[in-house]
Amino acid sequence: MHILLSNDDGIQAEGIKTLAKELRKFAQVTVVAPDRNRSAASSSLTLIEPLRPMKLDNGDYSINGTPADCVHLALNGFLSGQIDLVVSGINAGVNLGDDVIYSGTVAAALEGRHLGLPAIAVSLDGRQHYESAARIVGELIPKLHGQLLKSREIININVPDLPYDQIKGIKVCHLGYRSAAADIIKQQDPRGEDIYWIGPIGLAENEAEGTDFHAVKNGYVSITPIQTDMTAYHSMAALQQWLNKE
């Protein structure tokens, strides 16, 4: 098996290094990741400047672009040979509920699936037990098969930040959702000019049993199938009726 591994925390992040080490126990792994932290880049592609892959001494590649850039380049002619699976992570922090809209970790996996390959995104609810998340991914990958997911679906995995033997199990979940993000943070630079920071993400608003929030909060790994079709099918009939009345 040949795995393409990327992330959004950057090629020097502990999560991707830990995961690469684990996956290389049973697969060929090529790492193509951003040269710096590109968290919350979503599925953005770099179109107004060139991308410059750099091969590191260990054979990995860093790119001056987004997570989606990395996977797009890797699968569209930059790498030679067959890739069997795209894996993105391990992200420092969860990607639960609405987070998947912004997440560069999830976006890298979606780009892989968009280009025809099965893909997994994996995140850790913290910054300590990366080995736990890596071990779980390493156990799940050999069980994958071609008919597990439909076209353009990925697996989004979130792991509690616990030692491996304290994780209670794995649950298939649907996405919960968060409340609105906190207000922006206004400051001034040394010249007295106003600058702004995006505020912290919102708290979990729907963390009922069955959601990814509930699983991780209670010590379980959450696995959620994610799709690119965001159509709200349940509202289509109501919209059509509204148009007909108008």
Q: Could you describe the 3D structure shown?
A:
This is 5'-nucleotidase SurE. It catalyses: a ribonucleoside 5'-phosphate + H2O = a ribonucleoside + phosphate. Helix 1 runs parallel beside helix 5 and helix 2 (67-78) packs parallel to helix 4 (104-114). The protein has one domain (2-177, 204-244): Stationary-phase Survival Protein Sure Homolog, Chain: A, CATH 3.40.1210. It is globular, with a radius of gyration of 19 Å. Helix 1 links the parallel strand 1 and strand 2 (28-34). It contains seven helices and 13 strands. The strands form three sheets. The protein has a nine-stranded mixed sheet with strand order 3-4-2-1-5-6-7-13-8. It is α/β, with parallel strands linked by helices.
List the keywords.
246 residues; two-stranded antiparallel ribbon; nine-stranded mixed β-sheet; Stationary-phase Survival Protein Sure Homolog, Chain: A; alpha/beta
Short structural summary:
It is built from seven helices and 13 strands. It has helices at residues 14-23, 67-78, 99-102, 104-114, 130-140, 212-217, 236-245, and strands at 2-6, 28-34, 54-55, 61-63, 85-92, 119-125, 153-160, 169-172, 177-178, 185-188, 194-197, 204-206, 220-227.
